[in-house]
Amino acid sequence: MLVSLGLLATPSAFGSFAPLSNNTRTSSSKATNHQIAKQLAVNSRRGSQKLLRQIVFPCNSVYGRVSYGSPISAVLIEDSSTMATSEEDTENIGILGVDSALRPFKDHFEYRIKKYVDQRNLFEKYEGGLEEFAKGYLKFGFNREEDGIVYREWAPAAQEAQLIGDFNGWDGSNHKMEKNQFGVWSIKIPDSGGNPAIPHNSRVKFRFKHSDGVWIDRIPAWVKYATVDPNRFGAPYDGVHWDPPPSERYEFKYSHPPKPKAPRIYEAHVGMSSSELRINSYREFADDVLPRIRANNYNTVQLMAVMEHSYYASFGYHVTNFFAVSNRSGTPEDLKYLIDKAHSLDLQVLMDVVHSHASNNVTDGLNGFDVGQSSQDSYFHTGERGYHKLWDSRVFNYGNWEVLRFLLSNLRWWLEEFKFDGFRLDGVTSMLYHHHGINMAFTGNYNEYFSEATDADAVVYLMLANSLIHSILPDATVIAEDVSGMPGLGRPVSEGGIGFDYRLAMAIPDKWIDYLKNKNDEEWSMKDLSCSLTNRRHTEKCISYAESHDQSIVGDKTLAFFLMDKEMYSGMSCLTDASPSVERGIALHKMIHFITMALGGEGYLNFMGNEFGHPEWIDFPREGNGWSYEKCRRQWSLVDTDHLRYKFMNAFDRAMNALDDKFPFLSSTKQIVSSTDEEDKVIVFERGDLVFVFNFHPENTYDGYKVGCDLPGKYRVALDSDAWEFGGLGRVGHDVDHFTSPEGIPGVPETNFNNRPNSFKVLSPARTCVVYYRVEESPEETNDGNLGSVNETLQAESAKQENIEELATVVYQGESLGETNDYDLAGVSAKSPIDGAKQENIEEPASVQGKRIVASKPDDPEQEEKKMEDGTVDD
Ligand SMILES: *[C@@H]1O[C@H](CO)[C@@H](O)[C@H](O)[C@H]1NC(C)=O
Ligand SMILES: *[C@@H]1O[C@H](CO)[C@@H](O)[C@H](O)[C@H]1NC(C)=O
Ligand SMILES: *[C@@H]1O[C@H](CO)[C@@H](O)[C@H](O)[C@H]1NC(C)=O
Ligand SMILES: *[C@@H]1O[C@H](CO)[C@@H](O)[C@H](O)[C@H]1NC(C)=O
Where would I find the Glycosyl hydrolase family 13 catalytic domain in this sequence (predicted)? Predict the structure, then answer.
């Protein structure tokens, strides 16, 4: 929801929005000034200053010191029939064992857990349980019964109510509704002549009289489709009764694809996915764009802007109709076609769901049901609490029974009816705190997370939501857009956590923008970068990204455009030599995306187009730009043109995703940064058993560069950003075997090289990244040669095997933690003796020796021999 952080009070004020991502705003008026400044910057097209969010956790902060303790509490099991009383529940809160620093906040956890349990018990008592409760769409809105259609609407503030629409000529005098004790209005409209009285795809509205005696027409809250007359400027939306006959209903052919080990997410906006100057459709996206996503080896698609939002430029974040598929790109059946097609390609589909707030538009949206009644009788809080100053939108009352029904049912609806595989929940920070994150700088101090400022109703809502989603679809993936990093957000509800599977690592893109805007390449700090990338709670999973939709909305620009700017208009042809700026841009584009993926999280996200370095920025059609679609589309021709350099970035993106398929490193809990050398500008790390070497130096190529590793043996290149196919110079030999040398005295980590028990030497060209994998020795490979050598080899093998087993024990310690969901990405907080890399010890003087191509000196003959085996030496 960063996008609409900057949404202006009225669309007409500027015709569009300006992004804000500074959580430390000191006043909202400042923010407004900033928006204006941004808008001006947009007009001048250059020089805008995006203020950066400040969440600076020092490396080795509490985030690195996570202790593991008591087993997961089984108290809060999902089956509420066996649910213990609240008092007992709080005895054993698993999350307090996961992180002892949470213990001072035991009361807070007890309070929210009790609230959660009480709520579930109430659902059990009155609604047949949480899952039943979340089938509200079978009661509310329009539903077929045996001989007619029943329509129900919760509107306690209404004095009288009618159903109007095409079916009765918009005259409700014969279709008056009745209200029950809970403020629910209903009417049954019998079939006429065996046909439904309200035809499929006909327009309907709820007409009610409020306390002032005024009659108003509103779109039914649970409506499944809403349309607008495109020929009338500023026309209001109408509700549409969507109940296609079987022949027109889309039937799913494919089931949910298996859950990937780690999500590699392609974030997409269907409307702007065409290269033409128009809004693209669900079906065209399915047929034209999904195959691209598949070809680039993503395993998950995340769709923005699915729920109807009458203001297009809100990017889908000002939702007006929560159960309706946005009409701009087609019908509900068309969206089903898209999802089914994705499933046929083994792509999971996540929906960007917005429950953090609602559009304030009264004629088109849910806000129309607020006619000044009390919070208890409304979807929204009254007064300030019900209004989001920065987003100019309405804030839900998550403590209200009917609001819970509406929102929880909404989640179930998208899962059941459309077969989504999970959600990205937007604006979670805004939900978690009464201050919505406005004027807040999160420093990592736990008091900021657990205090009076925490909105317990919202926290409980999110616990209910996550628990519901996972009980309907155990394999669902649910991602929180939270910038605060609240501890426990990504821990199971059964432990007292909030139950998300992942959190978006929102500080990472800001770091890149900061570097690209404010630092020369010489000033890049390897330690700072690796700290920022690994700075997360290692017990909770993150989705990393270098840039999402947020980073390229108007006023900012894509990373590629940051890097290459106007040269993207003239310098992208392969037919001419790349200028230094284009060469640097493409090299860093690959490195930035890849190190973000490899080091930044347990999943990865890319926004549509950025995989190939889409230029410019995103700007929705609005008055200010003459309603232009020029910047609201994706120029696929750029990547499809063979003589343009975009294809290199695309090929690399494809390869880095494929690498994770082949050597699942994203899901690995083993992450060890062994070297961050400020002088060399090199970062060396291991993820899984892969060894990554990133050389950010603008000029220096290092030959025979010694890199630490865990397992001994033979290493080879798994991925090389310098390869020709990725627009590189092909300097690194791919047929070269890199044999390891043991390091230090076994069992004495201090004597190791960068705290790694083994090492090998590589060629590391300037501004490249190369990944090495350990070659599994197979018998065939060692079988040739005479008998004597076989004997030798076998002996050597068995000796090596012992060594490996010894090491493996250590690694497994980490993995067994992983099984209980305890993340031990050893980068910051390694605990095993061998992985005991202390961050302070990383830059050992030894690591500087003999690496620079000019100063390359063999430290001993044996090492030199190994180096000679690295065929790249001679080249
Ligand atoms: C956030 O915005 C405030 C007010 O504009 C500014 O003073 C502060 O420096 C900004 N913080 C960052 C990290 O950019
Ligand atoms: C609500 O949306 C309609 C168009 O759908 C627009 O004409 C109207 O101005 C909007 N109202 C507000 C308050 O934004
Ligand atoms: C949106 O709804 C209108 C009115 O029903 C319809 O004519 C139009 O085709 C729909 N748009 C799309 C893209 O299907
Ligand atoms: C292989 O090594 C063993 C000692 O481990 C030795 O007894 C045997 O003679 C060797 N065989 C050959 C063919 O060299």
Answer: 285-645
Q: Which residues contact 305 (CB under 8 A, 6 or more apart)?
A: 269, 270, 271, 315, 316, 317, 326, 352
Atom of ligand 1 lying closest to residue 24 CA: 1
Percentage, residues of the chain above pLDDT 70: 78
Our answer on whether the CB atom of 330 is closer than 6 Å to any ligand 3 atom is: yes
**One fold for 260-662 and 671-873:** no
Chain-centroid distance, C-alpha 704 = 38
Is the dihedral angle over the CA atoms 154, 158, 159, 165 positive or is it negative?
A: negative
Among 68-77, 263-272, 280-289, 650-659, the minimum mean pLDDT is found in 68-77
CATH of 671-873, one of 3.40.630.10, 2.60.40.1180, 3.40.50.970, 3.40.50.300: 2.60.40.1180
Summarised one tens digit per residue, pLDDT across range 507-533 is: 999 999 999 999 999 999 999 999 999
pLDDT band per the 50, 70, 90 thresholds, residue 43: very low
Is residue 593 packed enough to be buried (19+ CB in 10 Å), middle (13-18) or exposed (0-12)? buried
30 CB under 6 A from ligand 1? yes
- Cα 98 to chain centroid, rounded: 24
pLDDT digit string (tens) for 177-210? Answer: 999 999 999 999 999 998 999 999 999 999 999 9
Ligand 3, atom 1: closest residue by C-alpha:
327
Nearest CA to ligand 4 atom 13: 788
Kindly state if the Cβ of 22 falls inside 6 Å of ligand 1. Answer: yes
Q: Which residues are catalytic?
A: 426, 481
Q: Can you give the pLDDT at residue 780? A: 53
pTM: 0.81
Q: Where are the domains of the chain?
A: 80-133, 142-248, 260-662, 671-873
The residue nearest atom 13 of ligand 2, judged by CA position, is 361
CA of 798 to the centre of ligand 4 (A): 14
Cβ atoms within 10 Å, residue 161: 22
Residue to mutate (ligand 4; options 787, 790, 791; most atoms within 8 A of CB):
791
Q: Which superfamily, per CATH, for 142-248?
A: Immunoglobulins (2.60.40.10)
Ligand 3 center to 202 CA (angstroms): 12
